[in-house]
Amino acid sequence: MNRSAQAFDLHHIWHPYSSLSKPVPPLHVRSAKGVRLTLEDDTELIDGMASWWSAIHGYNHPVLNEAAKGQIDQMSHVMFGGLTHTPAIDLCRQLVALTPAPLTKVFLSDSGSVAVDVAMKMALQYWYSQGVKSKTQFVCLRGGYHGDTLGSMSVCDPDTGMHHLFNGMLASQHFVEKPACQFGEEASDDDMADLQRVLSINHNSIAALILEPIVQGAGGMYFYSADYLSRARKLCDEYNVLLIVDEIATGFARSGEFFACHHAAICPDIMCIGKAMTGGYLSLAATLTTDKVASGICEGEAGVFMHGPTFMANPLACSIANASISLLAQSDWRSNIERLSSRLQSNLLPANDHTKVANARVLGAIGVVETKNPVDMHKVQKLLPDLGVWLRPFGKLIYTMPPYIITDTDLDTVCDAIKTVAEECS
Ligand SMILES: *Cc1c(COP(=O)(O)O)cnc(C)c1O
After folding, report:
1. Which residues of the chain register pLDDT less than 50?
2. Which residue(s) pair with 273 in the sheet?
3. Residue 248 C-alpha to ligand 1 middle, in angstroms?
4. Fewest Cβ atoms closer than 10 Å to its Cβ: which of 81, 126, 213, 246?
5. Alpha helices (H) along 349-407
């Protein structure tokens, strides 16, 4: 990287979860195409991160580029208050068709965290409208991650989310043990006991249970039992509590089903999606809900749902999302994810025998190697250009969720890099 540009970046620009006093120098990307990032010094890296779950079709995709260019010549943006447009209508039609049938109402927003805040506000406004004014809290799973705004942070794991730093500003919520039963296992009564206990004591003050279905992402890259999810749905019904599923990371086939709640064949009352929705091109998210919740809100005292972002339903983002979702839905995504999954398994599961590895696991197109000691990020950042791979481990977790178009050979290279990082940087 050009020295003065690098110096400016280090001293003036925040990166996600970064320090401006002891920054880890970022790599300077010039362009990206397919699964490759090209750095300023011409180094090419195979992307193992899909830009945080989002670039599922790879970078610089001709179909998505075409959608963006076509829309930009029509209009990039127009306000959504009092106006509507075809890109939003087409997108919402697709979302209603692809999500579980009872989810028929769509609220578009700018980012995942906002979609979660919107979901929480829907649940709160729903109960308020029903005249149930005591239901103002949420129950959440430990190990969960739902975003970085103050609302969504309050339902993240209190320890990894550093709740103590924001004491007084974060709403206080109920936390239950994360499911001990892993993906593929049944959930026993013991596994459900903590959720059942918290609901039975506090259901009068709980508006909704919020969880990431099957895959806990940024809170620990953990895969849990589909049976837990279906029993949690039943408990919500039993205790008159809404269920919010946060599919922001898992949506659009990442876990092997189009949406992760399909693993348990359940339907939530509210669903959040984001990340991969525009194929990694622009920030866009959605919160879907049922006729029941929507009419509950709209027939209540406020008469309207109280949210409306400036850039709601941005036409450029909606057009690209339409193109990305069509591309995926019309492809044989299920066998492709199976291809990626078995390749990840054969490469990564043997790492379970490695002395520095605590656990290696794979679900869908997600591969995780959890080390016994934390990964040294300064070392990782220096090593990656030599390995020709882009990864972004956190804590003890080295993982990949590659673009779906990655070839077997490139995926092997990504997996080799994961094992080298575990060996040399943890
Ligand atoms: C990334 C993520 C979010 C937050 O989305 P942003 O677009 O970063 O605000 C929320 N929930 C889950 C499960 C996520 O993975």
Report:
1. none
2. 286
3. 6
4. 81
5. 377-387
